[in-house]
Amino acid sequence: MTPPRTVLLTGASGRIAGQLLPALRDAYDLRLVDVKDTDRAGEQVTGVEIFDVLEAHPDSLAALCEGVDTIVHAGYVTDGAARGYASERSNVDMTQRIYDAATTAGVRRVVCASTNQASKWYEQPYYQGRIDRVSVDDYPRPDSFYGWAKVAYESLGFLYACGSLGTQLEVVQIRIVAPREIDSADFRDRPLQHYLRDIAGYISERDLQQLFVKCIETADIRDRFGVPFQIFYGVSNNARTFWSITNAREVVDYQPVDDSEVKFAEQIAAMVRRG
Ligand SMILES: NC(=O)c1ccc[n+]([C@@H]2O[C@H](COP(=O)([O-])OP(=O)(O)OC[C@H]3O[C@@H](n4cnc5c(N)ncnc54)[C@H](O)[C@@H]3O)[C@@H](O)[C@H]2O)c1
After folding, report:
1. Over 90: is that where the pLDDT of 82 sits?
2. I want to staple 11 with a disulfide (CB 3.0 to 4.6 A). Which of 32, 75, 236, 250 is the partner?
3. For residue 66, what pLDDT is reported?
4. Got the DSSP string for 242-262?
5. Does domain 6-122+133-181+203-257 have CATH number 3.30.70.100?
């Protein structure tokens, strides 16, 4: 029997990691690192090693990556609501350290948690009825430092993947949109279109898990030029769409099972009646 892959998960005590961990624990030999070992609710996360990806000596980072098949990078520094330039630059630095250590240690693939905020600006013409779809082929247009940092580390991932640094690291970026159960009460005083935007961006926990696992497992993720680099939007099989997942269906056989239109049907009907 083939031994399970060794997967290093950064930001292991964070929210996204918490959604992924049940699936990852089942399938992989895990190394979990974070600067804290409790989640947002203050609960201990089993198996987390305290490790600062941003500050660790390059040798200890390389040692951490030794024997690792895939790194799932969900580590994220925040300065709270501000999400200013300095803290977001730290996220670019942290991700660069991950790519670099992965390359040095011969890691096969890095799968990064990114966000639709990399192209958030497109929601303006969407709300105006001027576009009805955004795909990863659209030029990234962030409208915050948070989104800008994601664009920066996504494109840095291409540099590590394309071979010009001497080796090719396989890199996937997952632009997660709305990985949470949507409550219409949160939109009581907001325009209907903001609510419907979240409905279109919804991704259920099991679809998020499926997408990440397929991004780890799919053998060939080369683009049409042969570069092992992909960007996918992370949404469920929603009837209302804006973020295209066509390429995720094609490249990694993503087959999301949930549809926000079904899951939140009653709430949607009430909200649409409200207008
Ligand atoms: N939660 C969402 O709604 C959402 C949506 C789209 C994309 N994302 C992306 O997913 C990623 C993870 O987000 P999250 O919501 O889980 O954030 P989070 O803040 O809940 O988790 C991030 C984790 O990274 C850890 N961390 C911070 N600095 C570190 C360091 N130097 N070394 C190691 N670990 C460190 C934190 O302690 C935290 O536990 C981010 O890149 C975020 O942009 C999240």
Report:
1. no
2. 75
3. 97
4. -B--HHHHHHH-------HHH
5. no
Q: Distance between the two ends of the chain, CA-based, in angstroms?
A: 57
Distance CA 32, CA 220 (A): 26
CB of 115 sitting under 6 A from ligand 1: yes
Check residue 263 and give its pLDDT.
97
Residue 1's pLDDT is what? Answer: 78
Whether 35 is in the pocket of ligand 1, judged by its Cβ within 6 Å, is yes
136's tokens: 């990863």
Residue 218, C-beta contacts closer than 8 angstroms, at least 6 positions apart: 251, 252, 253
User: Domain locations in the chain?
Assistant: 6-122+133-181+203-257
Atom 19, ligand 1: residue with shortest CA distance? 14
Token pair of 48 as six digits:
């987390």
Q: Which atom of ligand 1 is nearest to the CA of 54?
A: 31
Question: Which of helix, strand or coil describes residue 118?
Answer: helix
Choose among 142, 140, 146: nearest CA to 90.
Answer: 146
CA 209 to ligand 1 center in whole angstroms: 16
Question: Whose alpha carbon is nearest atom 39 of ligand 1?
Answer: 14
Answer yes or no: is the C-beta of 203 below 6 A from any ligand 1 atom. Answer: no
Ligand 1 center to 79 CA (angstroms): 12
